[in-house]
Write a structure and sequence with these properties.
Lipocalin, alpha+beta
Length: 232
């Protein structure tokens, strides 16, 4: 049924089944004429047209089958309620941003002489936002602004430091990047590409969150653990 819908002649040079049938009849007519011999050039031209028609018919039939079976749908994306074409969803390896919702909340912790706050927003539009503030003796020492964003390779934590007045530590367009390297329910591990810095978040209890920072780089080697309690 699909092959019958192929047009007879394509104005761009492709020829359908009707043209193939016409060429076949033409060859038979030429051969049937008394005393007439089809030249090699004529045979080559006619056979070439037949091959072109057959090849075109096969390609069009294959495309028609794919469209009817829906096998082309993922490549074409989906159409929203307003009739607009939407891009296909990216293939993501590892956890989704939504899987990191255990970070959501306002958290507070402290060390000797210092107090720290951290807050994470709920996942939305394949992202999460986070803020961190460290204080000593009632004065802010620095801030951190963080995002977790979806990528085809999995979620990536990006982080920038700021002094008072939002003076940035890192250069423009040089945010620190920590892709996810390990994930289990209620625990995620981010690490720099060279693995010199690793940041682990673990929520073992509903009202507590632990963040572990491990560094191996020269001058910064060590391990720090931050225990947070949920602020209600």
């Amino acid at each position: 049924m699909i092959l019958k819908s192929v047009p007879a002649i394509d104005q761009n040079g492709g020829r359908g089944l009707e043209a193939l049938r016409y060429d076949t009849i033409k060859v038979m007519a030429l051969r049937g004429r008394s005393g007439f011999s089809v030249s090699a050039k004529q045979r080559f031209t006619i056979m070439g047209r037949r091959c072109m028609a057959l090849r075109t018919a096969i390609v069009l039939a294959a495309v028609s089958v794919e469209i009817l079976t829906g096998s082309l749908a993922p490549a074409c994306g989906q159409v929203d309620g307003g009739g607009r074409q939407q891009p296909p969803a990216p293939v993501v390896n590892g956890p989704l941003v939504q899987d990191l919702a255990f970070l959501v909340g306002r958290w507070r912790g402290g060390v000797t002489g210092g107090l720290f706050d951290e807050e994470w927003s709920a996942p939305s539009a394949e992202t999460m936002m986070g803020m961190f503030r460290y204080m000593e003796n009632g004065k802010v020492q620095f801030y951190e602004f963080m995002t977790i964003e979806a990528t085809p390779a999995g979620p990536v934590l990006r982080l920038r430091h700021f002094d008072l007045g939002l003076a940035a530590w890192e250069e423009k367009d040089a945010a620190l990047s920590y892709p996810v390297v390990s994930f289990t329910p209620n625990e995620v591990v981010f690490a720099t590409p060279d693995k010199s810095t690793k940041l682990t978040y673990r929520r073992a209890q509903p009202n507590s969150l632990v963040a572990i920072l491990e560094r191996t780089g020269a001058g910064h080697a060590g391990k720090q653990e931050f225990d947070f309690a949920l602020i209600k």
